[in-house]
Amino acid sequence: MTLEKDNLWYKDAVIYQLHVRTFSDSNADGIGDFAGLTQRLDYLEELGITAIWLLPFYPSPLRDDGYDIADYTSVHASYGSLEDFKTFLAEAHRRGLRIIIEMVLNHTSDQHPWFREARSSRENPRRDWYVWSETDTRYQGVPIVFVDTETSNWAWDPISKSYYWHRFFSHQPDLNFDNPAVFEAVWEVMKFWLNLGVDGFRLDAVAYLVEREGTLCENLPETHAIIRELRKRLDLAYPGAMLLAEANQWPADVRAYFGDGDEFHAAFHFPLMPRMFMAVKLEDRKPIIEILDQTPEIPESCQWFIFLRNHDELTLEMVTDVERDYMYDEYATDKTMRINRGIRRRLAPMMDNDRRQIELLNGLLMSMPGTPIVYYGDEIGMGDNIYLGDRNGVRTPMQWNSALNAGFSLADPERLYAPVISNAVYGYQAVNADSQKRSEHSLLRWMKSLLQVRNAFQVFSRGTIQFLNPSNHRVLAYMRQFGEETVLVVNNLSSSAQAVELDVQRYKGYIPIEMFGRNLFPRFGNSPYLLTLGPYQFYWFQLRRI
Ligand code: NOJ
Ligand code: CA
67: Cβ below 6 Å to ligand 1? Predict the structure, then answer.
């Protein structure tokens, strides 16, 4: 397979999110690298994903796992060289896999030469590249993101004796986008990677680019103007390259980031994610339907990106206080599992390793509207280590086999950047890619077949969604429709068997074909269509007029 020329590729993609450091170590120094990752591309291709989203791999003091960038145009020495990156990119492209990289525009590391210069004296030409103040009282009321670590969004700089603004850690000073030189500098950086051939960027923390007194300094019109200018330049010089917004906001606010199809191509749907978990615990479809009802239409060329877990805590910013308490009570009873406003756990342990619930959630992920993202390791049901501090517990080495260090590295175990998971339930002897490849009924093999079906029908990536309204609230049922393709999805969100009567009058005469076994089910007739489902079971039916 090679890359097809298709500017809307991100709409039909299935993304795999990984951090190069966590994936595969080729030189036995205990840290994953590009050479190691390149050797694992066959695994990813076989899994059926079509794009890879790489976490930041730039030189960095790694105080925020690389989101604190010290140099935007090279590769962290632990991960290899720029040449290694180029080889990786070429090898990925050769397999038809697109590469999305991180671009952190909002802030740099305090070790970035720009900031070192800016703080060196008040007269320095780079002084105005960051946001300075004589007091720490400007922009009152702006929320603090890392509430467990930071007490203010201002930090004192002892060198230039003034305060600088930071929305994240105090070692991550915000860039000043009111200065056009900053915009030009980041555009230069983006061009550097685009010229190498990357397929898109995830723009980190994009809601916070600009600050204005009397506002929450989020989603400001000035921020949108910056994105529009970036997009204009991108479309002119690099058509087909994609911009993905990380804006942890309500759907109505995120909607603005699509503009008239002239800002972002894609944006994460943050509020949907916790509601999938809530719906399963509550055994009720309401949270999912409510949030999708509140989700505005987006321009034709745009796409939501959806996910279950990622490298951060499972964020509970986009829920009410009551909902947050519910999520904590149900999924993070042990306080060690909580960080900031979220839960630092992986999918499998959150589901108590119940294969049926893990499958149900993945089934939702692959059948709801949007481009799905699989977080590395979740395809084999990896566990977490909540004792590692910050969000590192969900960033442990990928478990390849039952050999030394889970096959991740040949270094002494003490040297690994983080210990491998080794407990009796989720440890690498029990949970690893190689053994799951060999076992026909493993989660990995199941995920492959799920992706195979998903990738064969464009209705999943492009289709409309229409919810059915059966009286049994434990069942979530929807029609997806695109061109000639119609699919009925029926999910039992509960832990017990359920019967459901579906009103499918509109499709009278159609025959539902179960999409995994390709078996025909009874034709839709006049009366409600009766289905029974086992605990957490789901069906995907292709509707055919035969
Ligand atoms: C969002 C990233 O996902 C997170 O990992 C990081 O800490 C913050 N942005 C700050 O860059
Ligand atoms: Ca290495």
Answer: yes
Between the CA of 435 and the centroid of ligand 1 the distance, in Å, is 33
Tally DSSP H helices, then E strands, for the chain: 16, 21
What separation, in Å, do the N-terminal and C-terminal C-alpha atoms of the chain show? 33
Check pocket membership of 204 for ligand 1, CB cut-off 6 A.
yes
- Crossing angle of helices 221-237/180-196, nearest 10°? 40
Q: Which of 273, 302, 331 is the last residue of a domain?
A: 302
Among candidate residues 121, 143, 165, the one where a domain is terminated = 165
CATH of the domain at 515: 2.60.40.1180
Residue 418 lies in a domain: no
Same domain, residue pair 188 and 144: no
Give residue 189 CA to ligand 2 midpoint distance, Å.
26
Which of 448, 453, 455 lies closest to 46, judged by CA? 448
Which ligand places an atom closest to the C-alpha of 149?
1
Catalytic center residues: 204, 246
Residue 8: what are its φ and ψ, rounded to 5°? -100, 25
How many other C-beta atoms are found inside a 10 Å radius of the C-beta of residue 463? 20
103 lines ligand 1 (CB under 6 A): no
Cβ–ligand 1 distance for 312 under 6 Å, the answer yes
Same domain, residue pair 336 and 238: no
Number of domains in the chain: 4
**CA separation for the pair 291, 298 (Å, rounded):** 15
Do 294 and 206 sit in the same domain of this protein? yes
**Is the same domain home to 191 and 123?**
no
Its domain, for residue 335, covers 314-345
CATH number, position 122: 3.90.400.10
Among 65, 168, 390, 392, residue to substitute to test ligand 1 (most atoms within 8 Å of Cβ)? 168
Nearest CA to ligand 1 atom 6: 67
Tell whether 325 and 291 lie within a shared domain. no
Per-residue pLDDT of the chain (546 residues; tens, 9 = 90+): 567 789 999 999 999 999 999 999 999 999 999 999 999 999 999 999 999 999 999 999 999 999 999 999 999 999 999 999 999 999 999 999 999 999 999 999 999 999 999 999 999 999 999 999 999 999 999 999 999 999 999 999 999 999 999 999 999 999 999 999 999 999 999 999 999 999 999 999 999 999 999 999 999 999 999 999 999 999 999 999 999 999 999 999 999 999 999 999 999 999 999 999 999 999 999 999 999 999 999 999 999 999 999 999 999 999 999 999 999 999 999 999 999 999 999 999 999 999 999 999 999 999 999 999 999 999 999 999 999 999 999 999 999 999 999 999 999 999 999 999 999 999 999 999 999 999 999 999 999 999 999 999 999 999 999 999 999 999 999 999 999 999 999 999 999 999 999 999 999 999 999 999 999 999 999 999 999 999 999 999 999 997
